[in-house]
Structures are given as C-alpha cells and as structure tokens.
Design a protein that fits this description.
By secondary structure, the chain is mainly alpha-helical. It has a single domain (42-205), classed as Arp2/3 complex 21 kDa subunit ARPC3. It contains 7 helices and 2 strands. It has helices spanning 3-27, 45-56, 58-74, 83-104, 113-146, 151-190, 196-205; strands at residues 29-33, 39-43. Strand 1 (29-33) and strand 2 form a beta hairpin. The longest helix has 40 residues, at 151-190. The model is unreliable at 198-206 (pLDDT under 50).
C-alpha cells in the first residue's frame, strides 16, 4: 500500500471511529440536569475514543474522539458551549493513550496476548486518568472565566463533573480494554491493525 493510499484509509477509519464516538455519546448517555441550565452525564463515549487510539494511534484516535464527541456537543443545546473544551480534552486522551500503547509499549510489535492486554489497559488508564483530573479543572476555569459563571456555581459543576468523569473512566477503561483485545485478532486478519515486526521481517527477506 502506498503512503497516499494508507493516509486515505486512515482518514476513512478515523471518520468511522468518530461516528462511533458520536453515537455512543449522543444515544448511550444518562444526562443529569444541574442548576443554571447546565448538565453532566454518565456515558461510554470515552471508551470509543480510547479504542480509536489503541487501533489507529494517538493522532488519528484522538481526532476521532475530538470530532465525534465535539460534534455531539454542538448538536446538544445544553452542551454546545462546552464543545471547544470537549475537542481539546478528547484529543489529549487519544494522544496519551497512543503515546503509552504505541510509543512506549509498542503493542503492534508484539504477539504476546498478555503483554498486549496489560499495556492496552495501562494506556487506557493513563488516558482516562488524565481526563478524570483535567476535565473538572479545565471545566471550572472554562465555566468561570470564559463563560462568566459565578465561582460558586462553577465549583458545584466541577464537583459533579469529577464524580461522573470518574465513573465514566472506570466503565470506559474496562469496555475499551475488553473490546480492543476481543477485536484485535479480527483487526489483524483484515489488515486494520498491521504487525510492524512482521512487516519488517518480510521487507528484509525481499
């Protein structure tokens, strides 16, 4: 596959994962309406953001989560003002997951199922652990200084956000880890995930 064709395929895969992120957040969420017309929710959208980064790598996976969930925010009158924050945080989740899984652990160069499972879970925890800390903090400053909400209200929203983000993270780590490791054999057979070590050996033998 040429470099150009590979890029086109990656973009198509990113669009597909973005659609999954959008659907999972838009339709598989339990919204909690808060005072002041704001809201927080329990959802599994982050699981698909992490899954995208495990499959496609940090940049493409992060963009899938950022575009999919950012677009979901734009279409929701309650969440629309938080769309820029969502875009940045989901991109960061993908970048962190990709860094740990592909740059540090190099899971696409291994055939050890236990190693891949362990590091896919570690990468998921790293990305969503970042989100548990960053989401309420960024949300607090975003609501207070950009949206102009009173400090007390911003604090209440941050506390609710911290609670729901933690629950979402636990569920998403488990879901993303299970889905990735269950789908990995199929993704390898279809060529969506490519074993880099095998590619190197093949190229050398040729």
């Amino acid at each position: 596959m040429t470099k150009k064709n590979e890029t086109v395929v990656k973009i198509a895969q990113t669009a597909l994962m973005a659609a999954l992120c959008f659907v999972s957040f838009q339709f598989l969420q339990f919204k909690i309406v808060l005072p002041g017309g704001d809201a927080t929710s329990f959802h599994v959208g982050n699981a698909f953001c992490v899954l995208a980064a495990l499959i496609l790598g940090g940049w493409y996976g992060g963009l899938a989560g950022a575009i999919g969930m950012g677009f979901a925010d734009i279409l929701d009158p309650v969440y629309i003002t938080g769309a820029p924050k969502t875009f940045v945080l989901k991109l960061c989740i993908g970048l962190i997951v990709g860094l740990v899984a592909h740059r540090i652990a190099k899971i696409n160069e291994s055939t050890d199922k236990k190693y891949i499972f362990r590091w896919s879970m570690i990468a998921s925890v790293a990305g969503l652990g970042f989100n548990v800390i960053a989401d309420p903090i960024v949300g607090y400053f975003y609501k207070q200084y950009i949206m102009g909400q009173p400090q007390q209200m911003a604090e209440v929203l941050a506390k609710w956000s911290a609670a729901t983000t933690f629950v979402n993270a636990v569920i998403s780590v488990i879901l993303a880890g299970v889905l990735y490791n269950a789908l990995r054999p199929v993704l390898l057979k279809t060529g969506i995930i490519r074993q880099k070590r095998e590619e190197a050996v093949t190229a050398k033998s040729i």
